[in-house]
Amino acid sequence: MKDNVRYIGLDVHADTIVIAVADEGRSPAKILGEIAHCWTTLAARLKGLAAKGKLVICYEAGPTGYGLYRQMRSAGYDCQVIAPSRTPQKNAQVKTDRRDAATLAHFLRSGDLTDVWVPDEECEALRDLSRAREAAKRAELAARQQLGKFLLRHGRRWEKSTWTLEHYAWIRRQKFEFESQRRVLADALQAVEDATARVQRLEKALEELAPQSPRLWPIIRALQAFRGIALVSAVTLISELGDLKRFGTPRQLMAYLGLVPSEHSSGLTQRRGTITKSGNAHARRILIEAAHHAYRLPIVSRKLRQRQEGIAPGVIRIALRAQSRLYSRTVHLFKTGKSRPKVVVAVARELAGFIWAVGREEQLLKE
Q1: 126 close to 210: Cβ distance less than 8 angstroms
Q2: Could you tell me which of 108, 100, 196 has the C-alpha nearest to residue 144?
Q3: What is the DSSP string of 158-224?
Q4: Do 106 and 126 share a structural domain?
Q5: Is residue 131 within 8 Å of residue 150, measured between CB atoms?
């Protein structure tokens, strides 16, 4: 019996866990019941199941995080965290926790599930800080839009660069007849200033804490040799992607970022569509933002030269080669009539390949 493999699907929620098991063969997955979300209780149930065969366990990624995964791995169990968007649905019209657990067990047995990369605790901690900064930036943008639209509704237009000291001074000079509108202006302006201060606090925390990671800092620092990738972008990329050596080829990294074209081909007909947008959206956004810098002639600016100080010459060579290649690629694609969004995505895809090269050449980080 010990040679048997039992496939365990867990539907995990904040308070409960539903357990289902699929044994080898073609028999349907069985629901074993619902327990409290407690590691001690779950460990006892898994111990009983393991008496009849080796366990392979999975649950879907969600708001409960990776703590359960780490506990099961520490206990010696083979556990996977599954991408919910890639889970097949046996009957999408009926969805319950019990059916979800059985579905996971069934497709885990058939090998039709896609697992996600689970970061270690150090990488996840840095990712939490990076995502907090990203959320703060979105809140700042929303606050600025609300204030701008309020002023626009009342015919107050600003024609120069926005959110500069001059722009803030202009906003403070605006006068309204009614006290209620004056209150709205004061509150909206305070919301913008608070949101901006929050972004600045989190960026300062990134600048302070990222260098304190001896394992992640070398590659974070190396990526800043690329034009368009400063500290915040480099931290986001590495905290979201982890060890770049886990991608065997550049195309694997490009596919993980969702930067490869979708395809619907059959027989002699080949149809390629928009990019898949699968995988990590946070890292994909950073690469697309960096790709906009390829429109400018290859040059090492003062800020870029400062970022490259002390970085291995081999890394700088890759970064400079990327500048020239991406600029020529941009010019070529425009000449062929490609639209700006398509050009940016194509350049971001190639930039991912250069980043992969830096991550794979470990000796370059130590030169």
Answers
A1: yes
A2: 196
A3: --S-TTSHHHHHHHHT---SSHHHHHHHHHHHHHHHHHHHHHHHHHHHHHHHGGG-TTTHHHHHHHT
A4: no
A5: no
- Domain with 291, as residue range(s), is 217-366
Cβ-Cβ contacts under 8 Å for 295 (sequence gap 6 or more): 327, 330
Model pLDDT, residue 144: 98
Question: Does residue 56 register a pLDDT over 90?
Answer: yes
**Among 80, 198, 195, 96, which residue's Cα sits nearest to residue 147?**
195
Determine the Cα–Cα distance for residues 330 and 308; give it in Å rounded to an integer.
Answer: 24
**How does pLDDT run across 216-252, given as a tens digit for each residue?**
999 999 999 999 999 999 999 999 999 999 999 999 9
CB 221 within 8 A of CB 320: no
- For residue 250, CA distances in Å to 1, 117, 175, 180, 349 come to 43, 17, 57, 57, 9
77 with 187, same domain: the answer is no
On the 0-12 / 13-18 / 19+ scale of CB atoms within 10 A, 335 is exposed
Q: Where are the alpha helices (DSSP H) in 11-120?
A: 39-50, 67-74, 97-110
Give the span between the Cα atoms of 82 and 267, in whole angstroms. 32
Q: How many distinct structural domains can be found in the chain?
A: 3
Cβ atoms of 75 and 107 closer than 8 Å: no
Identify whether 319 is part of a domain. Answer: yes
Instruction: Report the SS3 class of residue 55.
Output: strand
Q: Answer yes or no: do 306 and 175 share one domain.
A: no
pLDDT digits (tens, 9 = 90+) for 338-351: 999 999 999 999 99
End-to-end Cα spacing for the chain? 54
- Could you say which of 170, 195, 212 is where a domain stops? 212
DSSP3 helix / strand / coil % (the chain, rounded to 5): 55, 10, 30
Q: Is the pLDDT of residue 80 over 70?
A: yes
Beta bridge partners of 81: 59
- What does the alpha-carbon distance between residue 309 and residue 333 come to, in Å, rounded to a whole number? 33
> Which residues, other chains included, contact 340 with Cβ-Cβ below 8 Å and sequence gap of 6+?
none
| Letter string b/e over residues 179-201, b meaning 16 or more CB atoms within 10 A of that residue's CB | eeeeebbeebbebbeebbebbee
